[in-house]
Amino acid sequence: MEIExxxxxxxxxxxxxxxxxxxxxxxxQMLGVNLSILAFLGGLLGVGIGFGLQNVFLNxxxxxxxxxxxxxxxxxxxxxxxxxGKVKDIGFRASLLETPDNETLVVPNSNLVTNEIKNLSHxxxxxxxxxxxxxxxxxxDIDQVRKILLDIVEDEENVLKDHPAKxxxxxxxxxxxxxxxxxxxxxxxxxxxxxNSIREKIDREFNEQxxxxxxxxxxVYLFKGEGEEGAQEVEQLA
Length: 238
Known about the structure:
By secondary structure, this protein is of the alpha+beta class. It has helices at 5-30, 36-52, 54-69, 109-114, 142-154, 191-208; strands at residues 77-80, 83-90, 94-98, 104-108, 118-119, 128-136, 166-172, 177-185, 218-220, 235-237. The strands form 3 sheets. A 5-stranded antiparallel β-sheet has the order 4-3-2-1-5. A 3-stranded antiparallel β-sheet has the order 6-8-7, covered by helices on one side. It has a two-stranded antiparallel ribbon with strand order 9-10. A hairpin with a 5-residue loop joins strand 3 (94-98) and strand 4 (104-108).
């Protein structure tokens, strides 16, 4: 028969076990052994198998939920534990996700139902806002930074122009002024490429405009012993 090799192996093993069990039962009956005790043992074995397969039954039930409620459909782009994956198939026990690296993730259905999953392409509207954090040195002109970032976004092809980009001044950090560039894209799968393109342009433009993106620094003060005045020079540690 034209059967896949994996299915051939599984089928042959099942047939082997069935033949062995039937042969053992026939042999015991021919020896006059009372088989009612085997029915009792079989019941206990069935209970044990039920406990052992409870995760399988849970994944089966979750597979039915996915198929009927359809919170996740084939073709959706998911983010699972920081990994992007496109849904290739939803089975009764597990679902298959294809990553951008052409890897296939086999995810139990219970993980897709009980855990928090980001569905980046759920529904008809697939517009997605992405965030690009930037830090610049203290003393930098805030208006200049904002203008540079907005000009970069204006020239970016994959950024939606009908959703205005925003530059948010988030914080006075330990060693930098923190900004958050927020833009919209129409294809969630382009998120990594768009962020990469924007960061490259930011680095290039900041270098041309002599805008510093500093490393974290710490000031360490070394004081002399008790009774002595003054302090040693401050040592800058990067």
